[in-house]
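Thread: Newbie trying to understand structure tokens

Hi all, I'm a second-year student working on a class project, and my supervisor (Dr. K.) asked me to get a predicted structure for one chain before our next meeting. I've only ever worked with sequences, so writing a 3D structure as a token string is new to me. If someone could post the tokens and maybe explain what I'm looking at, I'd be very grateful. Here's the chain:
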Amino acid sequence: MISAFDCVHDGWGVAVLVGVPNKDDSFKTHPMNALNEKTFKGTFFGNYKPRSDLPYVVEKYMNKELELEKFITHEVPFSEINKAFEYMLSGESLPCMIRMDP
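---
Reply by user tm_fold:
Sure, no problem. This is what the structure looks like when written as tokens:
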């Protein structure tokens, strides 16, 4: 993070943190960097805004304009939700479908 911010050009440069940093990471810089108009931004889930973006995504999916199924690597029933977390933590699966069937 520090290296990226140090590379930002004074006056118009922007460094963007994508993803989630380690819980022990910290970011320290000299206050002069802010006065030099350097910008450091973060994004979480690509700045996805569920309230405004989700209806659009659902519409695209319902119109068969999004092929989401090809990204689902595993499906588990809700009763096996811990298995989904195991898949995710082991790196076997990122998008795992959890079925809410009774």
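A couple of things are worth pointing out once you decode it. The helical segments are 2-6, 32-35, 50-62, 81-90. The two ends are 46 Å apart (CA to CA). Feel free to ask follow-ups in this thread.
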